[in-house]
Amino acid sequence: MTNKYKYFVANWKMFGDIKTLNSLNKVAKLSKSIKFAKSKIIYCPPYTLLSNFVQNFKKTKIEVGAQNCHQSNVSGPFTGSINSKMIKELGCKYVIIGHSENRVNGDDNALINKKIKVSLDNKLKILFCIGENFKEKKNKKTKIVIKSQINSGLKNIKNIKNIIFAYEPVWSIGTGIIPKGHELKNNILFIKQLLKKKFKSKNPKVLYGGSVNAKNIKELRTINQIDGFLIGGASQNSNKFIDIIKKTFN
């Protein structure tokens, strides 16, 4: 890890309800521990729980983000949508953009670029997801895909200090399979070198996401180039999430 903090981003996807809020007190308590002072915990619940999470963590170091946003910066006839301005007004600090589950539903690189620009304008920090699918990996196009996603997604963006990158191989999400250590290290290094060269960024932040759990965290934590983790299923259970955080540092 080359950055000050180790990030733990809990992406709850379309899970969770009001009843789950009580279990978050354990995580809030952990965040106050001096032992885990170098951890940065971010929760990204469904839209329906954003306000509750912001209020719940108001007196803690835990921050809240949304899982996606509309590309428009103004209100309009976009049924079922919420834009980054609304997300910011709720008290959120982050927004996930480019997740593969949204890419498959129509979020191409051009649309992602618009969302990132608008979100940066609204002073949100971006959790920008990138990564190849299994076919692209098999055809040895991983680096080509990653470079294309970065170049297109960040078109006409010069400063990336408020962008955190999450390398999420599509074939790893929800499958229980993670990349081999040397492959993951090389891909993270490739992303960082690309960002340093293209944006003159001294310490770009790159997380790993894809089937992260309490078992494989012992292997993942040995890759020092990883600045944290974007965690899906395992983050929805506070005990499992805490276990991952503890094992990262112990």
TrEMBL record:
Keywords: Isomerase. GO terms for cellular component: cytosol. One of its GO terms (biological process) is gluconeogenesis. One of its GO terms (molecular function) is triose-phosphate isomerase activity. Gene3D superfamilies: Aldolase class I (3.20.20.70). NCBIfam families: tim. This is Triosephosphate isomerase.
